[in-house]
């Protein structure tokens, strides 16, 4: 790499339309100067002497091409006139093969870390630390190091579902918060409806092809109430590598009645999206139409544990990936519920995975109390269906009213 | 015979845990006599235990039970490692046929009052559809098809059948989580003794451990306690597999599941580690069991939590990794104690600028 050749722009490559023979006139005027042919070198000293009065720029590169990069920065060279003057040799010597221009400079003398004294390094490090951690950077950095050491030695606690509060708070929430605040500009309403302590079941509509609405709900609830929403995920979540370990670390557990009741009895704030894949995988044309609410398992879990059900309507998530198509055959082969086609997704490749920046509204409805019912109410299917319908209707009506209030999708 | 005390028969005393339990239960006040049974004599000291060389796979065991007037049988001869038993076929025969013969002998013994079977939480399996914590009345989401888990499922089936046929006998089924301890040799301990741990890429299993001391404790407790039923036995809390590897300071190599299986079968054939195939799903998804019944019905409180049991196991192991920890510790030594400078800065804001420099030198 030491003797890698540096190609200054516009001096060597063939200009013009690329016929490879004769440069276009526009390109000729732009090109600084061709490489002088050996034959053409002879008159150059004479010309040099003759042109000593002209700016040094013209003469120097011909004589000493290694100084060629200097031309642009030469104070004597007026930007306006240099191309014109320089173009002269090009016309005279059109073709050029090898010349000293090929090896103008190497990178040996350009080591960027060369001449910086260690004092400057220290100062720069301190400045950077102050930028990142503020004025109290030393204790902050020490605390951060202590955190890193705790992580590296495994000296932290996870709860029985695998929820890692520290890493959730420090990394997951910190990574998702800018998306929630800056990209989707989430507006939260009715946050008082979430009880400050004790078990509660947040029931939400589900949309957006990829369950980003769940993540955004988690961040919004944590930022507004300080509580962690514990989502219940489909078993597909826990069979996918990486996703499964992240989901457990983030506080999710399997959507089954055992885990739901166990979490609610433990006083956790549990989030459930009863529409499931029918909800997130519905086509764009059916946006904001609630799908069937499962079998009402979430209601019987709430009835058995006597916790309130907080309905949540999310507006905006439908538009992040407008689902216009599906590849059912491929989905069946891969064992996933659907392969989404959005206006951008397979078309733009990974760029199509960037969600559209729709404006989101989250409205938490009034809690539906279940502690009036006795413990056996969860086994009464008619009651379960009625409460399920009540929750579903509440969310649907809230969705409609939010859609009426919304100015546009993106504002 | 009244007032004499219990006569306890312990199977599987040739192995370390069985021998230790037999010795320990012999010292219990209500126990007058302990008979240890196995096909090979125990290697260590068995104290007051009288050893009877008998194979539980043949009807001789019935004669032993009848002759000695045994009233408590503790079945500990369920083997999880095919390597130590001399192959998978022998292991299955010892586990399943041995249990069948033992239970048949027990059924014919009129004096029998109590049967304790050491089972394992492996019966719950491990899959992505598992609930976070299994309670005793839950079934595995996927029935085990092979290996230790299937053996144990069959053994438990026979034990339940025995409990139906002999309702006068108290049957205690103890489903122990992975037993761990400095001297324990099991698939999971041999896995953690590997210098580099192969893990399944993209999954992090939840693990629960039971210290060997607590296993012996719960067995002793159930010999004396007047309870019956099925109980999950595990230490408190959960360790993630990644966390466990970090606590041991062992480097882990994430690789796809099939590759972990291949490495495991290679290690088994090379006799480096007794890595059983059903361990792969356990190391992928993990398992947690609910121990409420253990506390409330059985009345047993384990002395070690999962983390403490694992730390006790890890004490004996040499560390093979931990370089990043040492680097971080080195950096941290250059920096002040967290907390102290902040307190001072709050008291005197003017010292903020001076503080770091002075502390750096100190």
TrEMBL record, chain A:
Q: Which organism is it from?
A: Nocardioides psychrotolerans
User: Which stretches does UniProt call biased (Low complexity)?
Assistant: 1-12
Any GO CC annotation of this UniProt entry: membrane
Residue ranges for the region (Disordered) are 1-79
Q: Which InterPro entries match?
A: Plipid/glycerol_acylTrfase (IPR002123)
The GO terms describing molecular function are:
acyltransferase activity
List the protein's name.
1-acyl-sn-glycerol-3-phosphate acyltransferase
Start and end residues of each Phospholipid/glycerol acyltransferase domain: 200-317
Automatic annotation (TrEMBL), chain B:
Identify the InterPro entries for this entry: Epimerase_deHydtase (IPR001509), Lipid_A_modif_metabolic_enz (IPR050177), NAD(P)-bd_dom_sf (IPR036291)
Entry superkingdom: Bacteria
Q: Which residues form the NAD-dependent epimerase/dehydratase domain?
A: 8-183
Outline the segment boundaries, as ranges, of region: Disordered: 338-362
Protein name in the entry: UDP-glucose 4-epimerase
Species the sequence originates in = Nocardioides psychrotolerans
């Amino acid at each position: 790499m030491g003797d890698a050749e540096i190609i200054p722009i516009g001096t060597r490559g063939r200009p013009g339309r690329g016929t490879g023979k004769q440069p276009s006139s526009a390109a000729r005027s732009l090109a600084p100067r061709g490489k002088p042919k050996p034959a053409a070198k002879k008159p150059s000293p004479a010309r040099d002497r003759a042109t000593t009065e002209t700016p040094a720029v013209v003469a120097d590169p011909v004589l000493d091409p290694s100084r060629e990069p200097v031309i642009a920065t030469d104070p004597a060279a007026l930007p306006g006139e240099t191309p014109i003057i320089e173009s002269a040799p090009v016309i005279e010597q059109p073709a050029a093969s090898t010349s000293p221009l090929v090896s103008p400079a190497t990178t040996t003398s350009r080591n960027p870390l060369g001449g910086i004294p260690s004092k400057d390094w220290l100062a720069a490090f301190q400045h950077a630390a102050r930028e990142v951690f503020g004025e109290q950077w030393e204790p902050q950095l020490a605390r951060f190091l202590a955190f890193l050491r705790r992580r590296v030695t495994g000296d932290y606690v996870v709860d029985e579902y695998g929820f890692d509060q520290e890493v959730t708070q420090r990394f997951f929430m910190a990574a998702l918060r800018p998306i929630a605040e800056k990209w989707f500009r989430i507006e939260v309403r009715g946050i008082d409806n979430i009880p400050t302590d004790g078990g509660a079941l947040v029931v939400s509509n589900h949309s957006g092809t990829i369950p980003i609405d769940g993540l955004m709900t988690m961040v919004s609830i944590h930022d507004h109430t300080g509580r962690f929403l514990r989502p219940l995920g489909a078993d597909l979540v826990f069979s996918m590598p990486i996703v499964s370990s992240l989901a457990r670390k983030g506080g999710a557990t399997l959507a089954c009645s055992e885990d739901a009741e166990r979490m609610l009895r433990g006083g956790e704030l549990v989030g459930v999206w009863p529409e499931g894949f029918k909800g997130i995988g519905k086509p764009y044309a059916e946006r904001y139409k609630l799908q069937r609410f499962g079998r009402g398992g979430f209601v019987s879990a709430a009835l058995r544990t006597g916790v309130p059900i907080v309905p949540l309507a999310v507006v905006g998530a439908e538009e992040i990936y407008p689902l216009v198509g599906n590849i059912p055959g491929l989905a069946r082969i891969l064992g996933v519920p659907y392969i989404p086609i959005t206006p951008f997704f397979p078309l733009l490749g990974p760029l199509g995975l960037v969600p559209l920046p729709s404006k989101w509204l989250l409205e938490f409805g009034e809690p539906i109390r279940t502690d009036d019912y006795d413990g056996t109410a969860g086994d009464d299917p008619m009651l379960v269906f009625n409460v399920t319908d009540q929750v579903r209707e509440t969310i649907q009506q809230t969705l409609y009213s939010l859609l009426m209030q919304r100015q546009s999708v993106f504002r | 015979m009244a007032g004499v005390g219990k006569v306890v028969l312990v199977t599987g005393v040739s192995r370390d845990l069985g021998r230790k339990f037999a010795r320990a239960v012999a010292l219990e006040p209500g126990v007058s006599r302990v008979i240890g049974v196995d096909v090979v004599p125990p290697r260590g000291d068995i104290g007051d235990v009288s050893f009877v060389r008998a194979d539980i796979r043949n009807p001789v065991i019935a004669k032993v039970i009848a002759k000695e007037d045994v009233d408590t049988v503790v079945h500990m001869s369920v083997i999880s490692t095919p390597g130590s038993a001399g192959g998978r076929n022998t292991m299955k025969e010892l586990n399943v046929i041995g249990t069948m013969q033992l239970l048949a002998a027990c059924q014919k013994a009129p004096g029998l009052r109590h049967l304790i079977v050491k089972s394992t939480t492996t019966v719950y399996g491990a899959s992505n559809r598992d609930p976070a914590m299994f309670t005793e009345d839950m079934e595995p989401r996927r029935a085990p098809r092979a290996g230790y888990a299937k053996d144990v499922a069959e053994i438990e089936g026979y034990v339940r059948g025995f409990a139906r046929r002999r309702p006068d006998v108290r049957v205690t089924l103890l489903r122990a989580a992975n037993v761990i301890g400095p001297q324990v040799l099991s698939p999971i301990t041999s896995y953690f003794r590997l210098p580099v741990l192969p893990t399944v890429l993209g999954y992090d299993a939840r693990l629960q451990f039971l210290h060997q001391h607590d296993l012996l404790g719960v067995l002793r407790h159930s010999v004396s306690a007047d309870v019956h039923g099925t109980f999950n036995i595990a230490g408190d809390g959960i360790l993630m597999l990644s966390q466990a590897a970090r606590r041991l300071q062992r480097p882990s190599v994430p690789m796809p599941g099939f590759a972990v299986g291949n490495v495991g079968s290679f290690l088994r054939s090379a006799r480096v580690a007794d890595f059983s195939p059903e361990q792969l799903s356990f190391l992928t998804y993990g398992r947690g069991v609910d121990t409420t019944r253990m506390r409330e019905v059985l009345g047993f409180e384990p002395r070690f939590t999962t983390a403490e049991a694992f730390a006790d196991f890890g004490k004996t192991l040499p560390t093979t990794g931990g370089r990043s920890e040492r680097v971080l510790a080195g950096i941290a030594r250059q920096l002040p104690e967290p907390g102290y400078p902040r307190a001072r800065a709050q008291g005197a804001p003017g010292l903020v600028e001076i503080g770091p420099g002075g502390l750096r030198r100190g």
